[in-house]
Amino acid sequence: MSLFRLDTSILGTRSTTGTLADLVEQEWRAAAPDTPVARRHLGADPLPSTAWATAVATAFVPPDRHTPEQREAVALAATLTDELVAADAMIFAAPLYNFGVSQHLKTWVDVVFTDPRMAPGADRILAGKPAVLVTARGGAYGPGMPRDGWDHAIGWMRRIFSDVWGLDLSVVERELTLVGIDPALAPLAEKAERIRSAAEDQARAAGRRLALREGAFPV
Ligand SMILES: Cc1cc2nc3c(=O)[nH]c(=O)nc-3n(C[C@H](O)[C@H](O)[C@H](O)COP(=O)(O)O)c2cc1C
Q1: Is the pLDDT of residue 219 over 50?
Q2: Residue 40, class by beta-carbon neighbours within 10 Å (0-12 exposed, 13-18 middle, 19+ buried)?
């Protein structure tokens, strides 16, 4: 049994999604202390921005004529896919940036799609695996808010992880994380604190469900 954790924040140790993912992982570890956890941190160690286009280009060139860069891009796609295939459960930590998905996460998904095992139309080799997605945003874009619907990341992430890859996905969301930083949000301080506390509870619960789902808890 093994866990794969993907982080994507560019904010280092201040990462909100990193903190939420830590809570999920702690519950997993409490239940299954000896299981391996494979990690990839795209914020700290981004994929090359050219990898995706290079990997796509290999489709039009016979393998024996691939350039060294193309061979490297194909190998990278295989490595990323191997990490997903090897995992019994997954945690994805992915914040909202500029009203959309982080470029690092988008590149990672794009490169994964170039591996033949993950290509559109291939058998869904990850289907049914349990996964937790934790996300965070500085503002609030829910119903009734002036910018209702401006989070264009969460829908795409659900589409990929749940609908396309077929993962058994739980989602933990925290918003208003810029309260305390953006003075314009100061009146929302109490609400933000309630949201923080609820999101942390949800992260712990999602971690316990992840472990239970994988039979990590002794019965
Ligand atoms: C470059 C950048 C762009 C951001 N863009 C948005 C945005 O469009 N909307 C929003 O609500 N929050 C935005 N935020 C705030 C983040 O979503 C928020 O700080 C979140 O908690 C970040 O998660 P992390 O700490 O795990 O990186 C942005 C933050 C950064 C650093």
Answers
A1: no
A2: middle
